[in-house]
Design goal:
The chain is an alpha/beta fold and about 700 residues long. The protein has an eight-stranded parallel beta barrel with strand order 5-6-7-12-13-14-15-16.
Amino acid sequence: MMLQSVDVMNVLAMIERVIGPEKSSQIRLESIAPEKDQDVFELASDSGMVVIKGSSGTALASGFHWYLKHTCKAHLSWCGNQLELPEQLPGLFEPIRLATPYKYRYYLNYCTFSYSMPFWDWERWQQEIDQMAMNGINLALSIIGQEEVWRRTLLRIGYEEQEVSEFVCGPAFFAWQWMQNMTSWGGPLPEWWFEDRAKLANAIHQRMLSLGISPVLPGYSGMVPRDFGDKFPSSRPVNQGKWCNFDRPSLLLADDPMYATVATAFYEEQQKLFGTDIHFYSVDPFHEGGNTEGIDLAAYAVGVQTEMLRHDPQAVWVFQAWEGNPKKEILQNVIPEQALVLDLWCESHPTWETSEAFQGIPWVWCMIQNYGGKNGMFGNLDRIAHDPITTLHNPQAGRMCGIGMAMEGIETNPVMYDLLVDTVWRSEANDVGEWLEGYIERRYGKVVPAAQEAWNLLRKSVYNCNTVQQGGMESFICARPSLELTKVSNWGPTNVYYELEDVRQACKSLFECFEEYSDAETYRYDLTDVTRQALADLSRVYYKRFTDAYQTGDQVTFEKESEQFLQLIRMQERLLRTYKQFLLGPWLEDAKRMGRTVEEKELFEFNARTLITLWGPEESSQLLHEYSHREWSGLIESFYLPRWEMFISSLSKAMSGQTPPEPIDWYAWEYKWTQGHELFATEPQGSLYEVVSSIINTISEFGIADYNE
C-alpha cells in the first residue's frame, strides 16, 4: 500500500521537531512500495535536497534517522543528544536502499509505564513517539488511559464510583494492575484523573497511528475485582492467589455466565474511547504464577479469542512469553494468524527454544535488558548484533517475524538500544568493533583514541555478559544494610561477571578525553555513568572489608574500612549531583506536578518515593524492596547513606560493648521516608571535571588485586 499524503506530512512535522524548520526544508519525502511486503527506505541527493523515500511512516522516519546517524554523524538517545549539523545538510555520495527483514518492530513492556513513564506529560510522550518512529518501531504497547476503560466497564455492569476508586491502583503501579497482579495499591485516584488520562491516551494513539505505529491495547482476559462473586452470585470467579504478597484480582472463565457481559462492556467502552483503528490486544492470563488449577486452558483460550474477535474481527492476540507463559494448551487453541508472541528475554533466556517455537504462532525476538529501571551498565553487544538475524534464519525458530525492545525501564545504557535499532535495517550481523567506532563518532562528534580504548574495555567487561541474570551488577550502596549481602534486590545477580579493573581503566581513559569532548552532553552522561559504575563496583570491596573486620572482632580495621565505605557513598552522591539525569528531584517534581491539590501532590509523591524504595506495603516489601533502586543524587544522600550510617553505628557500638547489635526496624524507617516532602535539587551542581578527577585519584590508590577482591 502506498503512503497517503497525511503520512508524509506527519513525518515531516516530526523531522521539524528534531532538527528545526530551516534544516528540514532541505529534505524531501516521497512514498515507495514495500519490498516483498517488508518496509523499505531509500536515501539520495537531488539538486541540493536530501530525498528520503519510504514504504510507511516508520520507514520514512527510519530513513531520516539513518541519514542523521550514518551521513551526518549525529546521535539521538535518552541519555543525551549530539546534533551538531551544518547549515547546509550534507549530500550522499551514493544512494542507499535498505529493507528490514522484520515485519514487526515492537516496543515497550508493561513495567516501563511504571518504572520510567508514570509521570510523563504530552510533551515528553511526543518526544518518545518521535524516537519510536525514527527507530523503526511499528508496534508499541499502550496502557495509558486503561483506568478510564475500567471505570466505565465497572460502572456499566453495576459498580459504584467509590468501588471503582478502591479497585484502581496509583499511577506508579498501573503496570501490575493491568497484568492482573494486584489492585488498589497507591490509590485512590482523584475524579478528574480518569478522563484526563484518556485524553492523553487518545493523543498518544493518534500520533502513533499518524506515523505508522500500531498501538497494542490490553484485551479482556476475564479479570474482575475480588468481590465480584459477592455482587453477582450467579458468577463463579476463580481466585488467582497472590503475587508478591499482593492479592490478585479474580478471573472469570469464558464459560462463566458473566464473562460475555463484562467482555462486551470492556471492548465497547474501549472502542468508544480509542476508536476502532487499533487491532492488537495484549492478554496475559496467569502472569507470574496465577492459579490454573482445574481450569480447562483450551476452552479458556477459545473463549477469550472468540469474544475478542466478536468485537474486532481483525483482532490479533498478543502474548508475552515469560516465566512459563503462554501455556502450551492456550497456544494450541488460538488462531495462529490472529496471534503474536513476544519472546521477551531472548538475549539471555529465549523461550522459543523450549516451547517448540510457540506452536507455529508468529513471534518476535525481544530484548529486556533492563529490570526495574536500575541504572547499572549491562548487556552483551555481540549477542545483540548477531542473535536476532541468526535466529531469523534458523529453521528451528518457527515463524519469527519481528524484533523488539521490552525493557522494564528506559533512559539507561544507550549503546545497547542504539545497536538493536541499527540491527532492524540490516540483513547481516554488524561487526561490533567497526560499529562501536562509528558509535563513538556519532555520540561524541569525533573519534579520540582514548575513547576507543575506553569503549573496548567496556565492550569486554560490562557489555559482555554471558550469564543469565536480571540486569547489571547492583551497587551495595543501594542495599538494605546487612552482614550477609550477596545482592541488592531479591532477583538481582550475585556474582560479578567481568574484571572490575576494566571498568576502572575505562573510566580513566574516557576522562582523558575531557578537553576534547566536554561540550558534548552525551560525553558528560557517559563519563558520569562509567565513573558511577566504578564506584558501585568498589562498594563491594569496601563492604567486604568492614564486614570481615566485624566478624573477626578487629575494631580498628572495622572503623577505618567502614568510614571508607561511607566516604565512597558520599563521593557517589557528589558525582551524580553533577548531571541532571542522575538526580532524584526531577522524578519527584514530575510526580507532584500531576496533582491539583496538596493531597493529590502528596499521593503522587508517595507513589514516586515508594516505587524506588519499599515498592509495596510491609508484607510485599519483603520481596520487592530495592527492586527499583536508583543511584540518584538526593536518594543516596537522604536514604541510602543514612541507612548505612545507622547500621555501621550499631555495629560499632556492639563491638565496643561486646554485645549483639541492636536490631533496626528498616521498614519503619523507610516508610517514614516515603511519607516525606523534603525538596531535592532539580538542576545539576558542581564540577564534573573536579569530582571525577578526585574519584580517579582515590580509586587509583588501590591495586588491581585489592580492587578485585
